[in-house]
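Protocol step 4 of 6: structure prediction from sequence.
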Amino acid sequence: MSSSGTTTHDGTRAPHGQDTGHDTPGSGPGPVWSVDEHLEDILAAVRPLEPIELQLLDAQGCVLVEDVTVPVSLPPFDNSSMDGYAVRTADVAGAAEEFPAVLTVVGDVAAGQGAQPTVGPGQAARIMTGAPLPPGAEAVVPVEWTDGGLGDGPVSGMRAHSAAPEGASGEVRVYRPAQAGAHVRARGSDVRAGDRALSAGTVLGAPQIALLAAIGRGTVTVRPRPRVVVLSTGSELVQPGEPLATGQIYDSNSFSLTAAAREAGAIAYRVGAVADDAETLRATIEDQLIRADLVITTGGVSVGAYDVVKEALSAVGDPDDEGGLGAGGGVEFRRLAMQPGKPQGFGAIGPDHTPLLALPGNPVSAYVSFELFVRPAMRALMGLPDVHRPTARARLEAPEALRSPSGKRQFLRGRHDAAAGTVAPVGGAGSHLVAALAQADALIVVPEATTSVEPGAEVDVVLLG
């Protein structure tokens, strides 16, 4: 975290606490940070996690830190893509239903089988999908193009070997010709030995795990998924499923932020709600540091008398606090020129300098803050070069102009229609409107200098999901 100050309009740095010209009317003393300044400060402090070697399934969702080269061609041998008969093309060149080619069956070739029979002139070998093409054979004719050795016209499949072992011998009638290589998966047709299978920076999903397994890699070196601890604050918060008393509300923030962290690729731990007591909060956070690469708090960062996060962590940073929260350097609380999400906190705590982002308590403010600041920090921990959500330009569809406060970048929930190139607002601007948030798939961005956006105007949108 930068502690030297905030950026002024001329690009210089001003000490924190000194007016930089960013303040909005009635915002109180001290600097107001822009969205970009706050994010820049976070990303400058977050370092990618150290690489580790993991078994394949443990590496799912992680980011490769090195290129993976193919050690052996895939497939490693010519093999059949169909259940049928391996043949020489000359023997079936003129085959037709009226004049079938009659071939002698010299044996079976099954997947995983060692020795294979050699297919000579006038011969065929019954072959299964994935089995190696036997010596002498040039193509495979599907069993549906044959009589299956039964002599009664085309068949739809083979009888099980255990029920009819005689199918590996006798004669087979072939009713269609086949070109060389027909229904044969050639050696190296997928990837060849020495090819680059995956590049550094690839996020390992199921297809990538499949490729690594197919080329024989049992482990890979990756940056691990970040471990994110999420806790909300507020004595009024009750766990879902429990009865509400007067003045209480359900804790939704810890659920939404934990889910968002998991969707973004983290191993996320939900601690739940902590009462408005500074010492309890400090102790809870300190207990969680053993399993945290990043800590997220929500609530208690504004200017009220019960804003416990600010109370508990503002004093953190004592250099004599060896091994405690203050060993990381401390947390700074800021006001941002944005709506929703004006109050924010950021710093490093504990002996490992674990990043902590303190988000507002209003549900929409917390979620928007996660998308703008926490998600990029998580992707930086993963070592991904692109930490941002995709954006697009869209035409505003609204019954009336959108209003936005001067000097603040506003983020409104919206529904984006990519095909039509439009976006429509969902719900109002209130930071408590969770129902509207559940219907949104984009954030409509209104710049700081814009106070009104007319219907039909082009706007920037941040695409969610």
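Step 5 (inspection) to follow. Residues 1-28 have pLDDT under 50 and may be disordered.
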